[in-house]
Design a protein that fits this description.
The protein is mainly alpha-helical. The protein has 2 domains: 79 residues, Winged helix-like DNA-binding domain superfamily/Winged helix DNA-binding domain (Arc Repressor Mutant, subunit A), CATH 1.10.10.10; 83 residues. The protein contains 7 helices and 3 strands, in the order H-E-H-H-E-E-H-H-H-H. The radius of gyration is 20 Å and the shape is elongated. The termini are far apart.
């Protein structure tokens, strides 16, 4: 996935300014994809230049309201319907693979940190879910699906990290 497709998807739901989109990245899409202000505004400029979005209104202080074009909708549809190229890479699992380079206490510490981070992320997503005024529109329905995945993934990752830390502990006592 790319920021390009995330921005197109948000604009397909409803037009908005860069600021509006950034807020949606920080709330409804927090579990799915992140973007900094400079990344987002740079991508919006590229999308406009290629004709995938257009400016529909300009306001004070250079505020621009963007809307997806038919070419942008076609690009989004093509991306949505294309198969995933490959499984995503995981820096966390790459680190786990090489934890044998550390002493067991450090390896356990890393795994415990992974579990704690997952627990915090799960709690954050639960709080985020409670703070959103959900509706029956597509962004709410599919946003809830993505949020639920994040909550379940966080739970799975926490449980796995606790188990993995125990496996390292068990390896020490054998």
């Amino acid at each position: 996935m790319s920021l390009r497709h995330a921005a197109l998807g948000l604009l397909a739901d409803q037009p908005g300014s860069g600021y509006d989109l950034l807020k949606r990245f920080q709330t409804a899409m927090a579990n799915v994809w992140s973007a900094t202000q400079s990344q987002l505004y740079g991508e919006l400029a590229k999308l406009e230049k290629t004709g995938l979005i257009k400016v529909t209104d300009e306001g004070p202080r250079g505020r621009k309201e963007y809307e997806i074009t038919e070419a942008g909708r076609a690009e989004l549809r093509e991306w949505l319907l294309s198969p995933l190229a490959a499984p995503p890479r995981s820096e966390m699992l790459l680190r786990v693979y090489f934890l044998g380079s550390l002493d067991p206490a450090q390896a356990r510490g890393y795994l415990e940190q992974v579990g704690e981070t997952a627990a915090r992320r799960g709690a954050h997503l639960t709080a985020l879910e409670a703070s959103i005024d959900w509706d029956d529109d597509d962004p709410s329905v599919y946003g809830r699906l993505a949020l639920e995945f994040g909550k379940r993934y966080s739970t799975m990752q926490r449980e796995w990290a606790e188990w993995a830390a125990g496996e390292v502990k068990g390896a020490l006592t054998e």
